[in-house]
Design a protein that fits this description.
This protein has a seven-stranded mixed sheet. The protein has one domain. With 325 residues, the protein is of the alpha/beta class. Helix 3 crosses helix 7, helix 6 runs antiparallel to helix 7 and helix 10 runs parallel beside helix 11. The protein is globular, with a radius of gyration of 20 Å. One of its GO terms (molecular function) is nucleic acid binding. It catalyses: a 2'-deoxyadenosine in DNA + S-adenosyl-L-methionine = an N(6)-methyl-2'-deoxyadenosine in DNA + S-adenosyl-L-homocysteine + H(+). Keywords: Methyltransferase, S-adenosyl-L-methionine, Transferase. This is site-specific DNA-methyltransferase (adenine-specific).
């Protein structure tokens, strides 16, 4: 929904201008910006309030050299180790075919036995496989109403997993520095000693909502096999209880941004924000100017991947890159 994949080249230019050695991706999401930071030679800390972004960061940023072997992939895609059926029972008739749901349970029976780094790689591949198989990659619908005939919607999850595992293996490299991934509230993070802070908070839209849990609850649950999660059994989609963030609401987002900028006032701040959201660019610039002498705004035309139908007018937006030095 909010992936920054398409604006990574613009962010790379900004980061190259800023320089520095240490960086924080405070709302890491898909992990593409944190991965960019690692590729550019930063010592990276990532944070997100959801579990599956942290798993992805551990697999691709923290991980320097561990890969899934062909034997690992074959084992995970093979017969179940313990006969578990939680996903088959809980999501009976939802999202995937019976064979796909059986595979997810079986895969986790082996993932549970892997050493930690291989486990992170395998979970990341499993999450990506599930996202690719689900129409539009979001779990707000339970049928194939958005079936556009793509190969991804036809390929069994077991085969998806083989492909995504290979893709994640290809991403692993060592930049010679230690990194870490955190799951938590951005306001609880230490602010000292960070040269570059990248902020991509949830956007507060004028209408509708930006609830990541509503759209990605299945991926969040899958990343931990629903341990410690509360499923809302009365919902059609079996979604998880929503986590509160002040950035999601028009009445609280402005003060939350002010607190955020004040917290990281001693670092160079780079903020991504959308013209589809509130507050507007002028307000954000003024907020940054409260703690930064030099505030620059760059504009990038952007098409969001969420809502790929041609009538989804809110897909088209300007992405603002605010730079506070």
């Amino acid at each position: 929904m909010g992936s920054k994949y398409r604006i990574v080249p613009h962010l790379a230019d900004v980061f190259a201008e800023i320089g520095g050695r240490t960086s924080l991706d405070a709302f890491s999401g898909s992990g593409v910006v944190a991965y960019l930071m690692k590729a550019m030679g930063y010592q990276v800390t990532t944070n997100d309030f959801l579990a599956f972004p942290a798993v992805i960061s551990r697999a691709t940023v923290v991980n320097h050299g561990t890969l899934l072997t062909p034997a690992d992939v074959e084992l995970i895609g093979g017969p179940t180790a313990d006969g578990r059926d939680f996903i088959q029972r809980t999501f009976d008739g939802l999202y995937f075919t019976p064979d796909d749901r059986r595979f997810l349970d079986s895969a986790w029976s082996h993932i549970d036995r892997l050493e930690p780094v291989k486990r992170d790689l395998a979970i990341s591949a499993l999450v990506l496989a599930a996202a690719r198989k689900q129409p539009r990659g979001v779990f707000t619908v339970t049928d194939l109403r958005y079936d556009d005939g793509r190969r991804d919607l036809r390929l069994p999850l077991r085969e998806h997993f083989g492909e995504t595992a290979a893709a994640y293996n290809h991403m692993v490299f060592d930049n010679g520095l230690p990194h870490r991934a955190v799951v938590g509230d951005v306001f609880d993070l230490p602010a000292e000693g960070i040269d570059l802070v990248y902020l991509d908070p949830p956007y507060a839209p004028p209408r509708d909502d930006n609830c990541y849990i509503k759209r990605y609850h299945f991926l969040e649950g899958l990343s931990v096999y629903w341990r410690g999660q509360t499923i809302m059994e009365n919902t059609r989609t079996k979604k998880l209880v929503k986590k509160y963030t002040p950035f999601s609401y028009k009445r609280t987002v402005t003060e939350a941004l002010r607190r955020l900028f004040k917290k990281f006032k001693d670092s160079t701040i780079v903020l991504s924000y959308s013209s589809n959201a509130v507050p507007d660019a002028a307000v954000i610039r003024d907020l940054l100017a409260e703690v930064k002498r030099d505030v620059e705004v760059r504009t990038v035309d952007h098409v969001y991947s969420f809502g790929t139908h041609t009538s989804a007018r809110r897909r088209f937006a300007s992405e603002y890159i605010f730079i506070g030095r």
